[in-house]
Design brief:
The protein is α+β, with helices and mostly antiparallel strands. The protein is built from 8 helices and 5 strands. α2 crosses α8, α5 crosses α7 and α6 packs across α7.
Length: about 200
């Protein structure tokens, strides 16, 4: 079975004052459709197994938004039957994820993708570009984006925030709302192509 193994390592966790971010982040990702849920693996790392492209994109977006993680994504096969525990799994995707999270610590946007398919480079490039959009987004930009992504119109957002529709439009543009949405769609499509069963 082909899958994506996502490993996230908390940055700066060795500092005495650093809070353990794994429990709240796991809780925030708990509603995603995962083959195996995110589990703490060792120290300040957690790992999950994903076969749903949209779920992988959503998980990466959350981690990039928190700006606290080195993110490694391994694309490849996992040995079956897959054990119940995420950290007990084996296979090339796990090996790739370990290589990716190690390399992510010195990579742009602290994110790397490693796999057995040339297409992983395109996915990594798309993720870096998406990360650039998200990295420029201010709290006000996220506020507008969250409301619009939840289905609110610009007029509704304006009423909720007590600002004009024109101000909502300006904040959405500055936040790269449209670009971020397109990037998520592209990442989802690329992941879907990489996870296709090649024997079909």
């Amino acid at each position: 079975m082909r899958a994506a193994v996502l490993t996230a390592d908390q940055r700066g966790s060795t500092r005495a004052a650093a809070a353990d971010r794994i429990p709240p982040t796991q809780a925030a990702l708990a509603d995603l459709s995962l083959l195996r849920p995110f589990e703490r693996t060792a120290g300040d790392e957690f790992q999950g197994v994903v076969t749903d492209p949209a779920a992988l994109a959503a998980a990466v977006e959350r981690l990039l938004r928190e700006d606290a993680w080195s993110i490694g994504i391994g694309i490849g096969t996992v040995e079956e039957p897959l054990p119940e525990s995420t950290r007990a799994g084996r296979g090339p995707a796990y090996v790739h994820a370990r290589e990716a999270v190690t390399a992510a610590k010195s990579a742009p946007w602290r994110l790397r993708v490693v796999g057995d398919d040339p297409g992983v480079r395109s996915l990594e490039t798309a993720l870096w570009l998406w990360a650039h959009v998200l990295g420029r987004r201010t709290p006000r930009g996220w506020e507008v984006t969250d409301l619009v992504e939840a289905g609110a119109s610009y007029d509704q957002v304006a009423r909720d925030l007590g600002i004009t529709p024109s101000a909502v439009s300006q904040r959405a543009q500055a936040a790269g709302l449209v670009e971020g949405r397109r990037a998520r769609e592209l990442v989802t499509e690329l992941v879907g192509g990489l996870l296709q069963d090649r024997e079909r």
